[in-house]
Automatic annotation (TrEMBL):
Lineage: superkingdom: Bacteria
InterPro entries given in the database record: Aminoglycoside_PTrfase (IPR002575), Kinase-like_dom_sf (IPR011009), Methylthioribose_kinase (IPR009212)
GO biological process, one term: methionine biosynthetic process
Identification of the protein by name: S-methyl-5-thioribose kinase
Alphabetical list of SUPFAM superfamilies matching this protein: Protein kinase-like (PK-like)
Domain (Aminoglycoside phosphotransferase) ranges: 220-272
Pfam families, per the entry: APH (PF01636)
Provenance organism: Natronincola peptidivorans
Major enzyme class: transferase
EC number: 2.7.1.100
């Protein structure tokens, strides 16, 4: 019998034993080193490597509560979802996700390609690094994984079977609470508003009844719109990157939801990087170059996504009515409206909610942080309230620039 025949949460020593016993990557005499490297809110992530070779692996294990808080009781089935999603995404968007070596339904863990030669994108952006190929890569990933899993392309019975397979109620509940609800009323008392901004946030978010009404509409759409197999947590902390490579990781929040949820998350997190650069880069020339690259990237994420989406639709649509003249552009328009809304929701929840981002919290100067937060939240309200007015990348960028002017 193996100690790994019954589930338990592993420590680094256990993970080394597991890698040697369960994977084909190492022989029995291999000297392995293991280190826990995860800094996320949900799972435990370990890197295992052999001392005398370049062979290494990442092993990710799920516990039955979230690391961020024991309040969140979670099904360990999310590891199965993540493994199957990564395999599927690897087929739909080759080269843009890590390779999966093994999924273990007893230990609730997944072994996958080690991407240690990449860096978490959020960390790289906080060092104000630029990645000219990112917009191209991420829009290809999103179009291929999103459009190709909709009723536009799939046989309807196949798509409904996938909806059933990837139902993810507990992690969806986290998004429903942390993204769609608590940033606008703090009804659980878990928000973490920066004290110098508390009065402003109370007035601009909690007491804005029109904003709360729009958030309510969006929450119910999120809960009921099984449009595509979305990643569900597609931010710069879920992307490994280097100059010539982009790899999307951590799809444990995946389920069938609105396409704009993924696109909006990408856009919002680029805006957090913009806010960080604006607040922390002292050299004017360096600041201008970095912010200009981010602005162009935000614009490209929207416009390249639209261009590739319509091209893929033309090539891959199978549904009869999807071929009606003009339907593709109408459908894409609704996706961009959702994208604007989610951009706003993500900007709000990462500033006032439970799970905040280092792009903002690491800004040491109090006045600079207050300003950065207000820029993001002012733009966020427009994205949410006026979402049906957004069509192009320039529209998204103009709202950010208007918010900057308002707080200059």
């Amino acid at each position: 019998m193996s100690k790994f025949d019954t589930y338990f949460l592993m420590n680094p020593e256990d993970v080394s034993e597991y890698a040697k016993e369960k994977l084909d990557l190492f022989d029995d005499k291999a000297e392995l080193v293991c280190k826990e490297i995860g800094d996320g809110n949900i799972n435990y992530v370990f890197r295992v490597w052999e001392k005398n070779s370049d062979t290494s692996v990442i092993i990710k294990q799920a516990g039955d509560t979230a690391r961020i808080s024991d309040d969140f009781k979670l099904s360990t089935d999310r590891t199965r979802i993540e493994a199957e999603i990564l395999v599927l995404e690897g087929k739909l968007a080759p080269g843009l996700v890590p390779v999966v070596y093994k999924y273990d339904d007893i230990m609730n863990c997944c072994a996958m390609e080690d991407l240690s030669d990449h860096e978490i994108m959020r960390s790289a952006l906080m060092k104000h690094e630029k990645f000219p190929g990112f917009a191209e890569d991420i829009t290809t990933f999103m179009v291929n994984t999103l459009l190709l899993t909709t009723d536009v392309v799939l046989d309807h019975k196949e798509k409904k079977a996938m909806v059933k397979s990837f139902i993810n109620p507990q992690l969806c509940e986290i998004s429903e609470d942390l993204v769609y609800t608590e940033p606008f009323n703090d009804y659980q008392g878990r928000n973490g508003v920066f004290p110098p901004n508390l009065e402003w946030v109370t007035k601009e978010l909690y007491e804005d009844k029109a904003l709360r009404m729009e958030a309510a509409k969006l929450k119910f759409d999120f809960m009921t719109n099984a449009q595509a197999l979305i990643h569900g947590d597609l931010h710069t902390g879920s992307i490994f990157i280097k100059k010539d490579s982009t790899k999307v990781i951590d799809p444990e929040f995946a389920f069938y939801g609105p396409i704009g949820y993924d696109v909006g998350n990408v856009v919002a997190n680029l805006m957090f990087a913009w806010a960080n650069g604006d607040a922390t880069i002292e050299n004017p020339t360096e600041k201008e170059r970095y912010l200009s690259w981010l602005e162009e990237t935000i614009l490209q994420v929207i416009d390249l996504f639209k261009e590739k989406f319509l091209k893929s639709w033309k090539e891959n649509a199978t549904e009869v009515f999807a071929k009606e003249e003009g339907f593709d552009k109408w459908y894409l328009g609704t996706v961009i409206h959702d994208t604007a809304a989610v951009t706003g929701l993500e900007l709000c929840r990462r500033i006032v909610g439970l799970a905040q981002v280092k792009d903002i919290t690491s800004i040491e100067d109090e006045k600079a942080r207050v300003r950065a937060e207000r820029i993001c939240l002012t733009a966020a309200k427009k994205y949410i309230k006026n979402r049906e007015g957004y069509r192009t990348g320039e529209d998204f960028l103009n709202t950010l620039k208007e918010a900057v002017q308002q707080h200059s």
